[in-house]
Write a structure and sequence with these properties.
The chain is an alpha+beta fold and 77 residues long. The chain has a single domain (3-59), classed as Single Sheet (N-terminal domain of TfIIb). The chain is 14% helix and 22% strand. The protein contains 2 helices and 5 strands, in the order αβββββα. It has helices at 3-8, 55-59; strands spanning 19-21, 26-29, 34-39, 42-43, 51-52. Strands 1, 2, 3, 4 and 5 form a 5-stranded antiparallel beta sheet that branches. Strand 1 and strand 2 form a beta hairpin. The longest helix has 6 residues, at 3-8. Bound molecules: zinc ion. InterPro entries: Trm112-like (IPR005651).
């Protein structure tokens, strides 16, 4: 992704700055809790295409977090 292009991108809903997640290939708006996908290097700035982030994701956005985290923690036997 082009850094200058990224800097120009804002959320279409709130016009806020987006956070680029290089690993997930997403542009995230923490205000709306949406993650816009980047498909083949092209950001898809459509709210209907965006992924709704978990509340958990909105709070913790440490880089290097694997996108496909499992929530299977039923009993630690
Ligand atoms: Zn937004």
């Amino acid at each position: 992704m082009d850094k200058e292009l990224l800097a120009m991108l804002v959320c279409p809903l709130c016009n806020g700055k987006l956070k680029y997640d290089r690993e997930a290939q997403e542009l995230r708006c923490h205000y709306d809790g949406l993650a816009y996908p980047i498909q083949e290097g092209i950001p898809v700035m459509l709210p209907e295409e965006a992924r709704v982030m978990d509340a958990d994701e909105k709070l913790h956005t440490s880089p290097g977090r694997s996108p496909g985290r499992s929530q299977e923690r039923s009993g630690d036997a």
